[in-house]
Design a protein that fits this description.
By secondary structure, this protein is an alpha+beta fold. The chain has 20 helices and eleven strands. GO terms for molecular function: heme binding; iron ion binding; monooxygenase activity; oxidoreductase activity, acting on paired donors, with incorporation or reduction of molecular oxygen.
Amino acid sequence: MFFTFILVFISFIAYKVYPKFRVPEGIKNVPTLSFLKLVSAIFSNGGPDKRWEITRKVLEKEGIGKLWFNGVWHIITTDLELTKDVFSKTDLYPKTSLDESIPGSLTANYYGTNVVFSNGDVWKRHRYGITSHRKSISAVIYFPLFLSHITSPAFKSLPMHVFDETAVKLLKVIEKVDNGPLEVQDLMHRLTLDVLGRVAFGFDFNNLEDPTNVYVTTYQEVTAECDKPIYFIIPFIEYLPYFDRTEARKKVAKINELYDGLIETKRKSMETEELSKKINNNTADLLECMIHASSDPKYPMSDEEMRYNLAMFMLAGHDTTATALTTILYVLATHKDVQSKARDEILRVLGDSLIPTIDQQRELKYLNMVIKENLRLYPPVHQLPRRENSETIKFRNHVFLPKTPILINIYGIHHSPNNWKDPEEFNPERFENDNDEKREQYTWLPFGSGTRTCLGNNFSLIEQRVMLCALLRKYEVSSPTDSIHQDKLHLDHSSSTLTGLQSLHLIFKRTE
């Protein structure tokens, strides 16, 4: 009887487990990527470069590979044809919501349904709330170098004085450690968080001057909890007693109190006509625009939805730009000829000014080349959130059944010799006289592409130009001789989509 019970139990487990591992017929011929190697790389804090080393042989040859993850076979791709299809047919390849991919998790509860992880009418409603009432000044902010990648009106009207004032604060912080090693990654995160807080919802975190700000430390703790890889690799572990995240959920509640308080305060301003005045003179911040737009019955947005969007802006709006600024300072420190050439251009174009005007930013052709090459070499978003096809797709001799998870590997596309000559070299000149119509559109994707292009691309590019102009005018940047990054920038695991870095110290020496 006992052996019969064991046999039945084992048969039941096999019946339940086998379908999880069974490869769908249509993708059996897709090369398999090693789950164990990738998981090992993640737990050893391997960055996207390490993961690319593991997958590049397959992806460079075939353009796609299949990966078993969380009971489902995923398609990982660097194929430009499939990438184009995904970007251009959003109804056919909708994004997977957090409630679908990691239901009930801390991450899903914190970020919820927002403009990034939504589709169809829900996405259009959220996008309207964010992009409406922002007076387009594309005739003024016109950068041919990035034009084909700037498709949304979000952030096109920006309070430039916020960038200017924060740049001055940044210089004052650096002055205190003049000519000494300075941890750059943390500094850039503090900088971009201050800028985003003021532009997005009129709140000054003052993180540059007060790194221990309670809201900032709580926010950092929340994002660190959300990024822990074990909860992505073994999602159910979150519901086990030993791995209970009660304390983390308390921290989420605390940061949500800040968001809710800001939303309530802004809503009250509608009663005094103060908000309407800001909308009319185009001085409203992003949260005020969302609140004003939500009064349109066609595009309602609840306070909870606004909070979810604020949480996503905090992540996407400052983390990615902080990474971009950190990596570009590194490449400038290790390529002194590039740094010197960029500085000479800044001095020539700006004259005695510290901060570039919009017209002057247009003239910084070489600096724009440096920024673009840095975003190619070290894309802040190394892999896009997964999408799932809504119907059966035929790709080459493969068949993707509906709901097949598809992941676009941006780092792989940017580092493939199929797309770039000497892809591991830092070479801004590859973008000289750049014509995006001649070059394959989907080989440079730091902001994504198509209708779902990053809404904050203008915001990030302007912030990078302003900060680099201020820094390079005042300082020469170099790498300490004992730096672990002396020969190569060591990337780190940040999350399933964002690029992380190991601690990076650089030296800022005054040029004047």
